């Protein structure tokens, strides 16, 4: 399908664009229209959808613009200042700090990535942690906007988790999805991630962000620029085995939401975590900026199908990974620290979360 959902600032004429569902968060909260059915269809088919969040919080559009301004100001800082907040030094769990260009595995010709990122911990933004988090002064300036953003996205996420708990028939004697992703829970792994993809030279080819599925449960992505692609399975023998479609930027105040491995695991694969990547959009000649709120299950949650009977016995439980263990394992693959070809399934999120 061609250009069916180019709803953002950048036209995608002449390109194959993913036709994603648009879900209105307030309507989903009240079960209005066919929003629950649209949500389940999106989560079962490709794991990506647009979420209209404009009615959730007064001033939310300005909050989004503030965070765009923050990331541009932040990435304009000299690299020697940013490296003082190196994510490998500040945070064992990669929850706070700066990742320089080329540190992770990527799809460029040298095997490295083509983006910088800065992670901001939810616990620090909402003052849940026992101590304050280290940060450049420019981040402090935008803390009020970051708090509004974090609480608004958490509200939207709870609406989605609550609807999915009912839609996939999780038994009442098992924990609901929303109870495993509490924004008030301390020592969670939720982060706001600011990203800057460098401009590639005409002679360069490849994907600055390698094809992967996300580690956590839900990702709320905001960007004004194209570059994101999702993988679509071929529906006809004549089609390529693995076709890629562009995801058009969402209107201001809406997010591109995608499911991660965590939510797929908690549903036994019933809900889909979709493979995606970032590559230069044809004709784009500038750096690409985006930011995302990434929600993960609480650290001690066992990554198992909640629709099946509870796991009993210490041996059976020891064979399952916790959310924190799964996060650490996959992050090592993304970083390239332990990768081998037999572990490609971890990039694509294709197996049960069982201990090695």
Describe the model.
This protein is α+β, with helices and mostly antiparallel strands and 356 residues long. It has twelve helices and 14 strands. It has helices spanning 25-29, 35-45, 60-75, 79-82, 87-90, 122-125, 137-141, 143-167, 261-266, 314-318, 323-335, 344-348; strands at residues 22-24, 48-52, 97-99, 107-108, 115-121, 191-197, 206-207, 209-212, 218-223, 228-233, 242-246, 254-259, 276-278, 288-295. Strand 10 and strand 11 form a beta hairpin. Helix 2 (35-45) packs across helix 8. The radius of gyration is 19 Å and the shape is globular.
Q: Helix and strand layout, with pairings?
A:
Layout lengths: L21 E3 H5 L5 H11 L2 E5 L7 H16 L3 H4 L4 H4 L6 E3 L7 E2 L6 E7 H4 L11 H5 L1 H25 L23 E7 L8 E2 L1 E4 L5 E6 L4 E6 L8 E5 L7 E6 L1 H6 L9 E3 L9 E8 L18 H5 L4 H13 L8 H5 L8
Helix pairs in contact: 2-8, 3-8
């Amino acid at each position: 399908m061609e250009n069916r959902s180019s709803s953002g600032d950048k036209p995608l004429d002449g390109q194959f664009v993913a036709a994603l569902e648009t879900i209105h968060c307030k309507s989903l909260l009240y079960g209005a229209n066919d929003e629950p059915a649209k949500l389940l269809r999106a989560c079962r088919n490709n794991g990506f959808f647009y979420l209209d969040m404009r009615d959730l919080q007064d001033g939310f559009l300005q909050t989004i613009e503030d965070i765009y301004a923050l990331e541009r100001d932040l990435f304009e800082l000299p690299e020697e200042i940013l490296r003082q907040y190196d994510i490998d030094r500040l945070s064992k769990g990669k929850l706070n700090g700066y990742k320089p260009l080329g540190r992770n595995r990527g799809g460029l010709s040298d095997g490295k990535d083509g983006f910088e990122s800065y992670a901001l911990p939810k616990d620090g933004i909402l003052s849940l942690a026992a101590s304050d988090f280290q940060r450049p002064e420019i981040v402090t300036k935008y803390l009020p906007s970051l708090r509004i953003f974090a609480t608004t996205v958490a509200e939207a996420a709870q609406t989605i988790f609550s609807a999915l708990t009912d839609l996939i028939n999780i038994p009442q004697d098992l924990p609901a999805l929303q109870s495993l992703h509490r924004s008030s829970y301390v020592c969670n792994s939720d982060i706001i991630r600011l990203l800057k993809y460098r401009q590639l030279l005409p002679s360069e080819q490849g994907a600055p962000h390698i094809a992967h599925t996300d580690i956590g449960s839900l990702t709320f992505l905001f960007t004004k620029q194209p570059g994101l692609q999702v993988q679509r399975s071929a529906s006809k023998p004549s089609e390529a085995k693995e076709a890629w479609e562009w995801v058009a930027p969402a209107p201001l105040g809406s997010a591109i939401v995608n499911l991660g491995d965590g939510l797929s695991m908690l549903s036994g694969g019933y809900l889909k975590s979709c493979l995606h990547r970032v590559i230069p959009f044809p004709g784009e000649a500038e750096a690409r900026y985006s930011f995302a709120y990434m929600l993960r299950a609480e650290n001690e949650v066992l990554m198992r199908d909640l629709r099946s009977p509870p796991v009993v016995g210490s041996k059976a439980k020891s064979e399952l990974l916790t959310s924190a263990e799964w996060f650490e394992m996959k992050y090592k693959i993304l970083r390239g620290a332990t990768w081998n070809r037999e572990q490609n399934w971890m990039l694509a999120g294709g197996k049960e979360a069982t201990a090695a």
